[in-house]
SusD-like starch-binding protein associating with outer membrane
Amino acid sequence: MKKKYLFSIVFLVGIALSSCKKFDHYQINPNTPTQADPSLELANIEQTAFATISTDAGLATRQLVYTQSASTTQYYGWQRAGFSYGNISQVVKMEQEAARTAKPNYKYLGKFFRSYYIVGITLNFGDVPYSQAMQALNNNFSDAAIRPVYDTQEDIYLQVLNDLKLASDSLSASGGIINNDIIYNGDVTQWKKAINTFSLRVLMSLSKKEANTKLNIKQRFNDIVSNPAKYPLLASNDDNAKLTYYDLVGNRYPYNNSNSLKTDYYLDDSFVKMLKGLKDPRLFVYGTPTPNAVAAGLSPQDFNAYAGLTGSAPIADNVQKMTAGNASAINHRYAYDAVNEPSVAIGYPELQFILAEAAARGWITGDINKFYTSGIRNAMLFSRYKGDAAYTLADIETYLNQPSVALQAGTQVQQIMMQRYINTFMNTGWQSFYEQRRTGFPTFETAGSGMLNGGKIPTRWMYPTAELNNNGVNVDNAIKRQYPGGDDINGVMWLLQ
């Protein structure tokens, strides 16, 4: 199961209702301010939203293998997850303070962060509460606020696309200084770039719905790409929406000094074979040579020095191979370097791959090869760990010139998605899982006898138990209209149909 701080709507409503109880005056400190500048909320929102480093995502996408115990994520046996509306509640608070203090830029950043969060929630479940959610935070304790209806995924995406456009159109220098911004230091243009790039990600995630006239996906996509003056996009890795880490308490890389990462995580065999097949030098910064390769004196830049474990194999088989010295652990930098690399939530290489896919699908005109090679080049520049000797700038150009890397007619989308997938190693959260679920590329290996869920890769998570207990009518209606087989991890949500 995905490791998040999880909140149900009912829990949030309970918090709001508790303030109405007859003895609440005993719990209120009159010296504690109930109002605050919206900037005080912003940094916490950014730190939560843009923390995208996840070993669980690596297990689910066949990049990593866990050897300490049988992981339900790795073996595709997960069940329920929780809603993360607690994150949206913090955004609502920022919006409320923005209105009170007449600082509209925080309101429009709120539109972006609401969209960012609800997209993550609906990608996991399908239909979820949105239009009636969070009303208790505005002192609305009606039945609809306490037990909100479930919006259709189509309606959620329509609202998201409209809100993202509003945010980009409305952010301006006249909207006030954005203080306490740990991502872009208050630069409105940089925020517009990130929001518009995220909009393209959302639109591409709806590729199966390109004929939907309600959402008008291809036209929206073109409106952004064809008008860079109005809708600027990320222009380099320097523009990435990212969290940068520092060797300070509370600011270090999230897996720094993790004993589990030091001993329990290895590269997946299918991932290693993919990188070897492409002669991709990122293998040298993602993993470490096997102990047997080190003993044999092989160079860390020798592809033969690397081998992986099989994510679908029984854990005993993987432990045996690991103990025999035939497996590459995750690179030591992920556990030993306090700074390591930034957590990228919205990145320039991803944008280039999105544009390449859009060109391949005929959504836009443009040089598909230029987008594709730019995506790879900038992904490799990002992964070229602090400019060390793992691979050189010349190695990047050599890689790009290989026939196995060059785009081929008939396999363009497959190749684009493979490169987008490689770029997500230990970054950008679960995005590579969602993209593989949408396109089928790359193929995730499931042949081993350790597999759960009948050997199938789940397509979603089941709804939270709290919702079944406290909002049963609405969640039951949502299940019936979406999933004829019931609330099941193999149900196919609207955007995948």
The chain has a mean pLDDT of 92. The chain has 22 helices and four strands.
